[in-house]
Structure formats: structure tokens, C-alpha cells
Design a protein that fits this description.
The chain has a single domain, classed as Orthogonal Bundle (Cytochrome p450), CATH 1.10.630. Helices cover 52% and strands 9% of the residues. It is built from 16 helices and eleven strands. The longest helix has 27 residues. Bound molecules: protoporphyrin IX containing FE. Keywords: Heme, Iron, Metal-binding, Monooxygenase, Oxidoreductase. GO terms for molecular function: heme binding; iron ion binding; monooxygenase activity; oxidoreductase activity, acting on paired donors, with incorporation or reduction of molecular oxygen.
């Protein structure tokens, strides 16, 4: 048993509604805390998370109890050392800034334009459902190479897999849906792998299937599933959060519309302000002191990057959306060996294309005064809807 203080008065309901007040309290009073409601130790300070990510020997990603392994197979996200490096290296060319710019950018821009064409004349829409989610899904189909599926199905599979990864209550229906999603993805892969072997392209599946030392089919399937689970909701949520931040702060909106050089700041500030992945787990491999607590082997810790992104030692008034804040590294993409592979693809899709294009094409875009935008979640957090109006 660790010596971390047990913090009983944080409920899952509090965390879902708005986790930031609880994170602030934890940073001040118990930066490494056992939170019974979440059944995990939460690590909430920026510097402690950096220290963990620099020491994979003490805090490995591999945990055989992981529900991610049960739901998706053994993905690169739950591997360490050489095993992890080899699989990550195979995927890197797909996600390089050069590939993103030369290959993915025109594809992402075409999809964004087609979606905006679909509602530009209407004067109102839910940006979450009609733009951010289909854009993220259709871009992900291309990145993966799963162009043989329907984007609506991909959204459903992604959700079912993520629900299974978070199925701590062991609900059999959740496992059944996760398994069905998994089987549907395997079937789509069985169709696409021979095609991509015959005609290689820069996609994820092509990279893995055509490697000089190819991965096994189980490794390919697991890695595709982790990207289906982790590469869809995050760009969707970053798009909505960036727009929501700007629409609630008209002076900043005016500023970016007058200066194309500022879109990058909008993107980085949005993911810092409301990190799409709020928390991810690591395992403790040996007895270690962290944040005033002694942790023991096999303790499970949650790295609360959403909290680190509001840590007052790094960010002044972190709860405010402010594109003019002093630039400083944030942890929304993680850090260390598992630093998000999709960072450049997300920056391109969201920061360079989705957010500027929608604001340029929908004049006088504003939040719908009659329909409230709502936020939810803590392990994953974002807008649940984003109703807007514009002058059509
Ligand atoms: C704003 C959007 C995104 C955010 C905030 C985000 C965040 C993260 C974070 C925090 C991690 C580290 C997780 C851990 O260490 O356990 C991660 C890893 C990863 N992300 Fe992203 N992500 C985003 C978009 C994407 C996209 C679009 C893709 C792919 C299409 C992607 C693919 C991956 C992969 C493959 C990993 C695992 C890397 C490894 O284990 O070496 N991400 N992401």
C-alpha cells in the first residue's frame, strides 16, 4: 500500500462536470493522492509528471492488468523500451511534419471544405456533430488507410472501444460492444491489407503491412485500434474547444482574424486550456518516493496532464483561455517516449485548417444564444455539443 493520502471527497460526478477545482485542490494539498472514486493514484503537478515520463524503468507503460490490452490487444501505447521503439519507428513516417504537409494537408482541407459546403447557407449548425466529428473521422480513415469503412461506423467503433477501455465496472454489454467494434475493424483490415501491400501509400496500415520486418497481424490490429480509439475524439474536441474559446472571447477572435500568424497559438492554447486527454495511466515498478508519498510496486498512477496544464508554477490564471499568454510548453500531448505521434497531424487538421476555415467561411460566427454549449468528462474532456449561428 502506498503512503499517499486518500482523498475521499472527490466524486466521479464532480470530475465529469468540472475536474479543475478538484485538481487545484490536489495540486495544493495532495499532489500524489489515492482517489477512491477513481480507484487510482492521481498525480497532478507538472514537474512530477515530467519526472515520471523521464523514468520509464520505474514507471512503465506496460501493465498486464490494463483494460486497453483486454479491449484492443497489446498496442504500442502499453509497451516500453525496444518493443515500443520498433513499432513507433514504423509509424513515424506517416506522422512526420513533411508527410503531414505534403500528403495529408490537401486531403484534410478538401474534407473540411466539403463539410462546410454542406451547411454554409443554413445560418445555424451544431459544429460538434456536423463538422468537428465527421472531419476527425474522415481524416482518420485516410491516415489509417481504412478508406473502405463508413465514417459514421468509425465514430461508433471508436466510442465502443474507448468505453471498453474505461469499463472498470466490468459491464458485459460494454465488453460486447467493444468486441463487435474490434471484429468490424479486423474485417476492414483483412480487406485493406492485401490492397495496401499491392499499392503502398503513406497510411498507418500500409506502413505496418509493408515494413521490412512486418508486424504480426495481432500487432497491426492492436495498433490500428488504439489509433481508432485515440485519434478521433481528440482532434474533434480540440476543434470545438478552440472555437468555443474564441467565440467566448471576441477580442481574441478579432485578433486572430486579423493575423494569420496567430492560429498556432489558438490551437496550443485550446489543448492546454481543456486537454482532450485529461489523464493516462502508468504502473509503478519499484518502491519510489514521489510528491511526498511512497509508492509501491504495482500501484497504478494516473498522470493528470489536464491538471499539469493549469499548474500555477507554469501558467498564470491557467483556467482562462488566453492566446496572448507567455508561450510555455504544456503537457496535452504527453511527454517522453509515448509523446503523441499524431501531434503534427492534429495541429494541421485543427489549428491550420478546421478552425481558421470555419471562421473565415461563416461570417459573424457566434454561439447560439438559445442553445447552450456543454462540456463534460475528465479522462477525456471536451464540448458535448457546439450550437452556433452565423449570417447566411
Ligand atoms: C489534439 C489532438 C490529440 C491529443 C491532445 C493527443 C494526446 C495524446 C497523449 C496525451 C498521448 C500520450 C498517451 C500515453 O502516454 O499513454 C498520445 C499518444 C498517442 N497519440 Fe495522440 N493526441 C491527439 C491526436 C492524435 C491523432 C490525430 C493521432 C493519430 C491519428 C494520435 C495518435 C497517437 C498515438 C499513436 C499515440 C501513442 C504513441 C506511443 O505510444 O508511442 N493522436 N496522444
Amino acid at each position: 500500500m502506498s503512503t499517499a493520502p486518500s482523498v475521499e471527497n472527490i466524486t466521479l460526478g464532480d470530475l465529469y462536470a468540472d475536474p479543475y477545482p478538484a485538481y487545484r485542490r490536489l495540486r495544493m494539498e495532495a499532489p500524489v493522492a489515492w482517489v477512491p472514486a477513481a480507484r487510482i493514484h492521481l498525480v497532478t503537478r507538472f514537474d512530477d509528471i515530467i519526472a515520471i515520463e523521464r523514468d520509464a524503468g520505474t514507471f512503465p507503460a506496460l501493465d498486464l492488468r490494463s483494460l486497453q490490452i483486454k479491449a484492443m490487444g497489446h498496442t504500442l501505447m502499453r509497451k516500453d523500451g525496444e518493443d515500443h521503439k520498433r513499432e513507433r519507428a514504423l509509424l513515424e513516417p506517416t506522422f512526420r511534419p513533411g508527410t503531414v504537409k505534403n500528403h495529408w494537408e490537401p486531403i484534410f482541407a478538401r474534407i473540411a471544405d466539403e463539410l462546410i459546403d454542406g451547411f454554409a447557407e443554413r445560418g445555424e449548425a451544431d459544429i460538434f456533430a456536423e463538422f468537428a466529428a465527421p472531419l476527425a473521422s474522415r481524416c482518420l480513415m485516410e491516415i489509417l488507410g481504412l478508406t473502405n469503412v463508413d465514417w459514421r461506423d468509425l465514430i461508433g467503433w471508436s466510442q465502443s472501444l474507448m468505453d471498453a477501455v474505461g469499463n472498470y465496472g466490468d459491464d458485459p454489454d460494454v465488453w460486447a460492444k467493444g468486441l463487435a467494434a474490434s471484429q468490424a475493424i479486423d474485417a476492414a483490415l483483412d480487406e485493406r491489407i492485401p490492397q495496401l501491400k499491392a499499392n503502398p501509400d503513406p497510411s498507418v496500415v500500409s506502413a505496418m503491412a509493408n515494413a521490412a520486418e512486418p508486424l504480426t497481424i495481432d500487432q497491426i490490429r492492436a495498433n490500428v485500434k488504439v489509433i481508432v480509439g485515440g485519434g478521433l475524439n481528440e482532434p474533434r474536441d480540440a476543434t470545438c474547444t478552440a472555437l468555443y474559446g474564441l467565440l467566448r472571447n471576441p477580442a481574441q477572435l478579432t485578433q486572430v482574424l486579423a493575423d494569420d500568424g496567430r492560429w498556432k497559438d489558438v490551437f496550443e492554447e485550446a489543448v492546454r486550456w481543456v486537454a482532450p486527454i485529461g489523464m493516462y495511466p502508468r504502473r509503478v515498478a519499484r518502491t519510489v518516493e514521489l510528491g511526498g508519498a511512497i509508492l509501491e510496486p504495482d500501484d497504478q498512477i494516473g498522470l493528470v496532464v489536464a491538471s499539469a496544464c493549469h499548474d500555477e508554477t507554469r501558467f498564470e490564471d491557467g483556467h482562462l483561455f488566453d492566446i496572448n499568454r507567455k508561450r510555455a510548453p504544456h503537457l496535452a500531448f504527453g511527454s517522453g517516449p509515448h509523446f503523441c505521434l499524431g501531434t503534427w497531424a492534429a495541429r494541421k487538421q485543427v489549428g491550420d485548417i478546421a478552425v481558421p476555415n470555419i471562421l473565415r467561411r461563416l461570417p459573424n460566427l457566434r454561439l447560439d444564444p438559445d442553445r447552450e454549449a456543454r462540456l463534460g468528462g475528465w479522462v477525456f474532456r471536451g464540448l458535448l455539443n457546439l450550437p452556433v449561428k452565423w449570417d447566411a
